[in-house]
Amino acid sequence: MLPEEAFLRRMPRAIDLEERLLMDGLVTSADLAAFAFGRLRERLAQYEAGQGTGAPDRIKILELAHFSWAIVDQIHNFRSTARRLSFPASERYEAFIKRTADVTTMRNGMDHMFANTRNRAKKKKAGFLPYGHLSYVVPVGLGLAFNVINLGSIQEESFISPLVDTHQVPDEGICRISLAAFDQQIYLDEILSSLEEIIIEIDAFYEERITEQIRAICRQENIDPEKVLAYRLPRLPHMKVMLPRWKERRG
After folding, report:
1. In this model, does residue 194 exceed pLDDT 70?
2. Phi, psi of 166 (to 5 degrees)
3. Taking the CA of residue 166 as centre, how many other CA atoms within 13 Å lie in the half-sphere pointing to its CB?
4. Which of 59, 67, 167, 173 is deepest in the core (most CB within 10 A)?
5. Segment among 14-28, 114-128, 157-171 with least mean pLDDT
6. What are the C-alpha distances in Å from 210 to residues 4, 20, 53, 148, 185?
């Protein structure tokens, strides 16, 4: 999502700790969502290349379910964290929040899954399967294959969620990856593309805003702002320093 030298990856220590924690959580949620989506596409490509026909085995289904729902969790976390930051709502940001509203609805459905199972089973509502269905489009020769994978063991057709058909021919590879569950449907590739745009926009905003604030304060206090801006958080915690101290306290 963000390059290694991005502002939000190496924030000045002068930033208030609470705000630093929020921004770090925001970046980590985006990274985890992107990581899970990359692995999801890899698994789907491996399935297409190695099997092509027939249902994937149980381990493959577990991997697909794991990565799909990891994306749901992290997009929900990103939305919740972003709302606590002092980031002005741009048109792009508002569009992202609106587009991902179904993600939070889906996650809430998972949180209350067991409490609502009886009612959903009686109604045989579409999308009943707890972990839903994964669908995607893949080019096959001059045409397209539209595949649906149940993220569970029930294979009854009446349980398949309604899926939005696609008329767009993909340029290359697997695309239009969709998760349908709890009467919601989200297109993961579209969401991840929007997420990348938003995190880059937020990074640029905070770099400009915080740099201006630090320079203004340094002028008042007669401090070199470049030294303050250069005093960044390390990329990784110094565990080799912290661990011996912890052992001493235990002893």
Report:
1. yes
2. -120, 140
3. 18
4. 67
5. 157-171
6. 19, 11, 54, 46, 38
19-61 pLDDT per residue, tens: 889 999 999 999 999 999 999 999 888 887 765 555 567 788 8
Cα dihedral 106, 108, 110, 116 sign:
negative
- C-alpha–C-alpha distance, residues 95 and 142, integer Å: 34
Neighbours of 219 (CB within 10 A): 10
pLDDT for position 113: 67
* Number of neighbours of residue 35 by Cβ within 10 angstroms: 15
State both tokens at 129.
Answer: 């399967």
SS3 per-residue string spanning the chain: CCCCCCHHHCCECCCCHHHHHHHHHHHHHHHHHHHHHHHHHHHHHHHHHHCCCCCCCHHHHHHHHHHHHHHHHHHHHHHHHHCCCCCCCCHHHHHHHHHCHHHHHHHHHHHCHHHHHHHHHHHCCCCCCCCCEEEEEEEECCEEEEEEEECCCCCCHHHCCCCCCCCCCCCCCCEEEEEEECCEEEEHHHHHHHHHHHHHHHHHHHHHHHHHHHHHHHHHHCCCHHHHHHCECCCCCCHHHHHHHHHHHHC
On the CB side of 44, CA atoms within 13 Å amount to 28
